[in-house]
Design brief:
Blueprint: E1 20-27, E2 30-37, H1 60-145, H2 162-173, E3 178-179, E4 188-189, H3 191-200, H4 210-213, E5 218-220, E6 230-233, E7 241-247, E8 250-256, E9 260-265, E10 273-276
Parallel strand pairs: 3-4
Antiparallel strand pairs: 1-2, 5-10, 6-7, 6-10, 7-8, 8-9
């Protein structure tokens, strides 16, 4: 055999593609994957390639933390729903209470108005009955004495009888006389002086002042007046003026220095109260 003979080699030819090896490991709880080129083409520089993917390690503590977070979120949601339901219930209760209060106030107001209307109607009925009784009494007295009770007459006259008739007669005789403070007649009077002088004609001695005369006798309502009743202005016991009721809705009194002794209707100056002596 020639020394230059070529003996075929049994070695496999080198691959042109690079082979890669996969290495795996755990470092500090991190899974590490490394891929390194095993071979490169002959004309290329050796350059190792590494690719790393880090993934969290699932531990018992992590699972516990996640579970607690989920429980806390669920508890917060339940608390929110409970608070919302409570707020809604409170608002509904407040609205119902306000409605009930308004209804109660409306009902109370209606009842009060109804009661006031009833009392007003009752007072009117009593006043009508009193006036009817007074007219009947005056008519009866007029028939027995022959004195006119015509309201259209130029000067209404009393229809009283007996002592009340004498009282009214004396008062009418004083009309036109002067008002003088402290005077008791016979040419001039003040208000209480005139009332005292009128009752003296009947043998009745009254106190001197308006305050005393307003409590002398029996208190009577203005809707139930009789001829001869003493009218007073101001409080009982503290009256500042007095006069005498002479019937037909009129009174006679010593009013003031400018008018003197006059006869006036009750509407001229509504008295506060009255006392009955006869």
């Amino acid at each position: 055999m020639s020394p230059n003979a070529v003996i075929p080699s049994h070695r496999k030819p080198r691959r042109s593609a690079s082979s890669r090896a996969l290495r795996a490991g755990v470092t500090g709880g991190i899974l590490t994957l490394a891929v390194t080129g095993a071979a490169l083409p002959a004309n290329a520089a050796e350059k190792p390639v590494a690719e790393t993917l880090e993934m969290p390690t699932v531990t018992a503590d992590l699972v516990t933390t996640l579970a607690k977070s989920a429980d806390a979120a669920e508890q917060a949601a339940l608390e929110y729903e409970r608070q919302a339901a409570q707020d809604s219930s409170t608002a509904a209760a407040a609205k119902a209470a306000a409605k009930a209060k308004a209804e109660a106030e409306r009902k109370a107001e209606a009842e009060q108005k109804a009661e006031e209307a009833r009392q007003a109607e009752e007072a009117k009925a009593q006043e009508r009955a009193s006036r009817s009784t007074e007219r009947t009494t005056l008519t009866t007295r007029a028939a027995s004495t022959g004195v006119s009770t015509d309201a259209t007459a130029s000067t209404p006259r009393s229809t009283g009888t007996g002592s009340s008739s004498s009282l009214v007669g004396f008062l009418q005789a004083q009309l036109g006389k002067s008002y003088v403070m402290g005077a008791t007649g016979p040419s001039a009077y003040d208000c209480s002086g005139l009332v005292q002088a009128a009752y003296r004609q009947l043998g009745i001695d009254l106190p001197r002042t308006s305050q005393q005369q307003s409590t002398f006798g029996t208190q009577v309502g203005l809707g139930n007046l009789q001829v001869g009743d003493i009218l007073y202005w101001g409080g009982a016991g503290s009256a500042y003026h007095v006069a005498v009721y002479v019937g037909n809705g009129n009174f006679i009194g010593a009013q003031n220095p400018s008018t003197g002794i006059v006869e006036r209707p009750l509407s001229y100056s509504q008295p506060t109260g009255a006392v009955r002596v006869l």
